[in-house]
Specification:
It is built from ten helices and nine strands. By secondary structure, the chain is α/β, with parallel strands linked by helices. The chain has a five-stranded parallel beta sheet, with helices on one face. Strands 2-1-3-4 form a four-stranded parallel beta sheet, with helices on both faces.
């Protein structure tokens, strides 16, 4: 929960735990993004600001970018990293429950990054531990640090967040990245466009929450109807691992594909983002266009996670 406490500088938000993007205010987010700007120089020169600090990465689900991003961020700030990247490599494989794992691991570290297949796992972890918890993805619920790096990407590439029309495409029902990003964007003056198959529409409770927050929300099934009006296209894959029924996945995989033909009607300034990994929802030819920003997001992610770790631990 992003509770503010006394900070050495008004420009550095002091936060305790990163569980949900909904725990953040717009002011806290903007301070983190501003701090991420300062991390750009640190990324190249290195720092010892977190010297003596240890980050534990507990990944109960597969991860490439998030795990390596946090590891890189900690090393760049002078800290050290311990942990595992699959439950088979831990006592979880022996039947140990999450709370016991956390109670043991907190003795070895100063902050824990947790990815878990169950919704609510990160908040439970925060209740059980004395050290800060960072939610690196909890089931289909949320992925708050991804939302923060997505906001940072938009800001860096387009110069602003306010006033933009942003389309989220693909699996909006099970996609935790789009849930967190939607809540984050609702804190800004943006227009949200949800594009998905009927059965993968944004969860009703999320849509209602967003509207109650004052967000402008539209829903479509056809990307062609909105491609000429949007400033950001955020693409997500259809996630096989989230479907309770494999036959439902088989019906819906490949529902959308962003290709050069579709982009003929896009604004020249449109940026395309993706949390990755991608399967076939963006064709490789798009990678060479100025629209493609999904391979810059990982770099921006390191800077944002450096800012988060510095805010949590200094």
């Amino acid at each position: 929960m992003a509770r503010e406490t006394q900070s050495e500088s008004d420009s550095v938000p002091k936060i305790k735990d990163v569980i949900s993007i909904r725990d953040f205010s717009r002011d806290q987010i903007e301070k983190l993004l501003n701090l991420a700007d300062k991390m750009g120089q640190v990324f190249h020169s290195g720092s010892d600001v977190l010297r003596g600090k240890i980050l534990a990465t507990l990944f109960m689900e597969p991860s490439t970018r998030t795990r390596l991003s946090f590891t890189t961020a900690m090393y760049k700030l002078g800290g050290q990293v311990i942990g595992f990247d699959s439950p088979e490599m831990s006592s979880v494989a022996k039947g140990e429950n999450l709370s016991d794992t956390l109670r043991a691991v907190e003795n070895y570290c100063d902050v824990i990054v947790l990815r878990h297949h169950l919704e609510g796992a990160a908040r439970l972890a925060a209740d059980y531990t004395r050290v800060p918890i960072i939610n690196a993805g909890s089931g289909a619920e949320e992925h708050p640090t991804q939302a923060l790096l997505d906001l940072y990407t938009i800001k860096k590439e387009l110069g602003r967040i306010d006033g933009l029309k942003i389309a989220l495409l693909g699996d909006l029902k099970y996609g935790r990245t789009v849930h967190s990003l939607s809540y984050a964007l609702a804190l800004f003056d943006t227009s949200l466009v949800f594009v998905s198959p009927e059965t993968l529409r944004m969860r009703r409770e999320v849509t209602l929450d967003l509207k109650n927050m004052g967000a402008k929300v539209e829903e479509f099934k056809d990307l062609q109807k909105v491609i000429s009006d949007i400033d950001v296209l955020y693409v997500t894959r259809i996630q096989r691992e989230r479907f309770p029924d494999p036959t439902e996945y088989e019906k819906l995989k490949g529902s959308y594909q962003v290709n050069l033909e579709i982009l003929k009607n896009a604004k020249p300034t449109l940026i395309i983002m993706h949390p990755l990994p991608r399967i076939d929802e963006i064709v490789p030819e798009v990678d060479e266009t100025p629209h493609a920003k999904y391979f810059k997001q990982p770099y921006y992610g390191v800077l944002v996670r450096m800012a988060i770790l510095k805010s949590l631990l200094t």
